[in-house]
Amino acid sequence: MVIMGVDLGSVRTGVSLCDKNEVLAYPLCVIEEPNLNVLAQKVHDICKEQKVSKIIIGYPKNMNGTVGQSAKRSEDFKSLISDDIETVLWDERLTTVCSQRNFLNLNINSKRQKKRNIIDSSASTFLLQNYLNYNNHKRL
Fold first, then answer.
1. Does the N terminus or the C terminus of the chain have fewer Cβ atoms within 10 A?
2. Nearby residues of 128 by Cβ (< 8 Å), 6 or more positions away
């Protein structure tokens, strides 16, 4: 099945997909939309186009495990997604930090806006890949 990863931001949201065998995640796009209702509609449109069966939404808990403002935004976003698509809130602590470190380690220099988009889509890919790895390990 095709699974989508969503790394929700206040302005930019990274979107990734996985292959049909649920092994490898890859970046799809970045959606620049601060309004959750409009964003939910755009994500729903992508789901129809890509035949997505499940959405993994980043759930950025605080480092002590509590639910903060960003995590509540993820809960709000999840409630806006259509009931015909399964959605899962997935702990995404440090995915953006990991993505940023990868680009620093690779010494990638690009224009600031382009780099932000790459980091946001990469963070959604990290999020989805972590979910896939967990599920594939559970099946063994």
1. C
2. 3, 4, 5, 16, 17, 18, 25, 56
